[in-house]
Write a structure and sequence with these properties.
Layout lengths: L1 E3 L6 E26 L2 E29 L2 E18 L7 E19 L4 E12 L3 H4 L3 E5 L2 E4 L7 E12 L3 E21 L2 E24 L4 E16 L2 E17 L5 E9 L2 E2 L4 E2 L4 E10 L4 E5 L1
Parallel strand pairs: 8-11
Antiparallel strand pairs: 1-2, 2-3, 3-4, 4-5, 5-6, 6-9, 7-8, 9-10, 10-11, 11-12, 12-13, 13-14, 14-17, 15-16, 17-18
C-alpha cells in the first residue's frame, strides 16, 4: 500500500505500508559412508534424517517526508517467526522456537547543494541474523577418533544495531562511516573433555565494530564506466571470557566497457585480506568475473562469453 500525504505545498511526503510472509520447508535424508582402502570406517560414517521448517510473518510501515533541504524516513517492521527442528536421528534434542520482534528505522538527510548532488545523512536501523539450517541440526556425528560435531537446536537469532553517517558528492562519490554492535551472537567452538573434542555452536557473544566505506566511480564517456570501492573494518568480539580485536580490509571494482563492433565487456573484481575471529582465521581467494556480450537481431538475440 502506498499513497502521498498532502500537508502543504512546501512539504513532500509519502506513506507506505505492507505485509509479507515467508515459508520454508527443508527435509534432509543422508546416509554418509566413508571408506578407507575399501574398508568401511564406522567411526566417521553416519545417517541423518532431519526436517526443518521456518515461518516468518511481517507487517511494516514507512513514512517519507521532505522539507526544504531536509528529508526524513521513519519506519517500523513487526515480525513474528516460528522455527521447528525435527531430527529422527537425535529426537531427544528436538526444539521449537518462536519470537516476535520490532525493527525500527530512522534516517535524516540534509542537502548541501541539490543541483550538484551534495548530501549528508545519518541513520539508525536494527537487523536480525538467523542461524542457518545446519547450525540448528541436532545431529551428533563423529568426525574423527577424537572428536564429535553437532548443531544446536536451542540456538537463537541475534540482533545488530547500526548507526551510520553518509556523505555523497555529485550523487556518485560516497563515504560512509558506520558503527554497529550486537549481543548474544552465536559462535562455533570446540571443547576438550577428557581428550575428546566436542564442536558445537552457542549464543553468548558480544561484538562491536566501525566500518569505513568509500565508493569512487570513474567515467570514460562513451567507452564505459568503472566503479571502485573499498572497506575497512575494526572490531572487538567477546565470547566465553575471550576477547579479540580484529581488522579487515577489502576492495574491488566493477566495470562496463564498450568495445568496437558492438561488443560490451563487464568485469568484477573483489579481494579481501585474511580475517581473524576469536577461534578462526578466514581467507577468501580473490574473485574475478568477466563477460563479453553482443546483441544481434535488433537486441532480440544476446550472446555472451563468461
Amino acid at each position: 500500500y502506498e499513497r502521498p500525504v498532502h500537508i502543504n505545498r512546501n512539504i513532500e511526503s509519502k506513506f507506505f505500508a505492507g505485509v509479507k510472509g515467508g515459508w520454508l520447508i527443508h527435509d534432509t535424508y543422508s546416509d554418509y559412508a566413508y571408506y578407507h582402502s575399501q574398508v568401511l570406517d564406522e567411526i566417521t560414517s553416519y545417517m541423518d534424517k532431519y526436517k526443518y521448517s521456518e515461518n516468518i510473518y511481517a507487517a511494516y510501515t514507512k513514512y517519507n517526508m521532505a522539507i526544504h533541504s531536509f528529508s526524513f524516513v521513519v519506519g517500523l517492521r513487526v515480525e513474528h517467526s516460528e522455527v521447528n527442528t525435527e531430527s529422527l536421528t537425535n529426537p531427544e534434542r528436538n526444539k521449537s522456537n518462536s519470537y516476535t520482534d520490532l525493527f525500527p528505522q530512522l534516517n535524516i538527510g540534509y542537502s548541501l547543494n541539490k543541483d550538484k548532488g551534495h548530501n549528508l545523512s545519518i541513520g539508525y536501523s536494527k537487523g536480525i541474523f538467523r542461524p542457518q539450517i545446519a547450525d540448528l541440526n541436532p545431529l551428533v556425528k563423529r568426525i574423527s577418533e577424537f572428536g564429535y560435531e553437532m548443531g544446536n537446536p536451542d540456538l537463537k537469532s541475534f540482533y545488530n544495531h547500526t548507526y551510520s553517517f553518509t556523505a555523497t558528492w555529485f550523487n556518485k562519490y560516497i563515504l560512509q562511516i558506520a558503527y554497529g554492535h550486537s549481543k548474544n551472537f552465536f559462535q562455533s567452538y570446540g571443547e576438550n573433555i577428557n581428550g575428546t573434542v566436542y564442536k558445537t555452536i552457542q549464543n553468548g557473544g558480544k561484538s562491536s565494530y566501525i566500518n569505513v566505506y568509500a565508493q569512487i566511480p570513474v567515467s570514460f564517456g562513451k567507452w564505459g564506466d568503472i566503479n571502485m570501492n573499498g572497506r575497512y573494518s575494526h572490531g572487538k568480539s567477546e565470547f566465553n571470557g575471550y576477547e579479540k580485536y580484529t581488522n579487515s580490509l577489502s576492495w574491488g571494482c566493477s566495470a562496463m566497457i564498450r568495445l568496437p563492433v558492438g561488443f560490451n565487456l563487464t568485469a568484477m573484481y573483489a579481494h579481501s585480506l585474511p580475517n581473524r575471529s576469536i577461534y578462526t582465521r578466514t581467507s577468501i581467494p580473490p574473485y574475478v568475473n568477466v563477460s563479453i556480450r553482443k546483441s544481434f537481431c535488433k537486441n532480440k538475440l544476446n550472446v555472451s562469453l563468461l
